[in-house]
């Protein structure tokens, strides 16, 4: 899906897609025939043609190709894209893949923090990022901030939704990248190391920093870790083919439910060199601090449903330990 269908209450939409500009993943391959090389480009300043295969664009008869969903080359990238990629890969001869990375920002009345989040994404040096912003119909200056940067946003829409996970589902339906990350209003993307993603074969987690705690932490996305904790969603880069829509039957812990589904597809944890800066502890993060029996019971049910009886038993024992410690604390008080 490239655009969301019109809905009542929509306040606007825009971005590069609405102007006919779409992004792809790219792979480098050797041109076997002259006809496979990119076409010539026009110098808009001199109105003359120049060869797109000159040294500043390609070398050693290598060209960048648009890939299909299986990462197989289908046709040469346009000359202007060839030039942009080769500028990025200068002195980095080992780079032969540039996967499209989708970053989704969900926001509602976030004018205080949104601009900082947008700048952290669009100022990355990696040249192949697809940026999507889903606004829940904000009534403050959020939309004005989005419009200020829509020249660097692939698609944005402002319309009512059913909550944060409904908005994130809209983003999932719209994305076309190989990798997906949710960087919501108030979060900052510090470093996007695409080489780490190229070497990953499954959804992975990364390092992140929390401003409020001045803490650098490595998250784990394993079944064992999920029996007693939840990684911040900002620290997870999902492989697109492993990501599913969030289950709206879990209005508070749908991100945890999503992670248990994804984690069940891979036993091996993967860490990357990404660095995420979480400027604000948002809705999802605050929920991880909820140790009420109701919340623990809901989490345990999800573990049993998606990860099986063994991990459910571990999660239950963890919940009972929390409950027992709380009882002892109340007795001492």
UniProtKB/TrEMBL annotation:
Molecular function via GO: hexosyltransferase activity
Keywords: Transferase
Domain Glycosyltransferase 2-like: 102-185
Gene3D superfamilies attached to this UniProt entry: Spore Coat Polysaccharide Biosynthesis Protein SpsA, Chain A (3.90.550.10)
Biased composition (Low complexity): 39-63
Keyword Transferase: yes
CDD domains xrefs: GT_2_WfgS_like
Residues covered by region (Disordered): 32-75
One Pfam family linked to the record: Glycos_transf_2
InterPro entries reported in the protein's UniProt record: Glyco_trans_2-like, Nucleotide-diphossugar_trans
Protein name: Glycosyltransferase
Organism of origin: Flexistipes sinusarabici
